[in-house]
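Hey there, shall we discuss this one?
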Amino acid sequence: MSSEQAQQPNQQPTQHSNVDVDLKQLAAKVGPYPLTAYRFVREGLSRTVEMSQGLDSSEADRHVSGQQLCMGLREFAIERYGLLAPVVLRSWHVQRTDDFGRIVFAMIDAGLLSKTPQDSFDDFRGVFDFDEAFGRDRLVNAMQHR
């Protein structure tokens, strides 16, 4: 998945507002995920691309697979929310990696993200078990190694 309108560090606030408006409309239309879940996935995608390919990658190289994105979103959730990561995700109705896929493909359908012909919703199915990936011991361990 790649971001069509990925926010660059120098981007003007009005462009960010346009993306927020698009995300609000999308969240209202698609449900059951709130606007914050869409923002999280969008920011997590940018972070995952950065971590896997660096800031200097060309636009053509700014792509990650569904599996890579799921793993990146897991790390991003732990980084951002720590021990509360599973609680926050559950509050957004995100309880499986399939939910990440539904959010991503809703944004693709809305033209907010792009995909390659090889990308599929199946890439998001069962990437990891949420109870295991966000178990307390695992979270504590991940946070200690930061």
Observations:
- The first strand starts at residue 2 and ends at 3.
- Strands lie at 2-3, 113-114.
- Residues 4-15 have pLDDT under 50 and may be disordered.
- The radius of gyration is 15 Å.
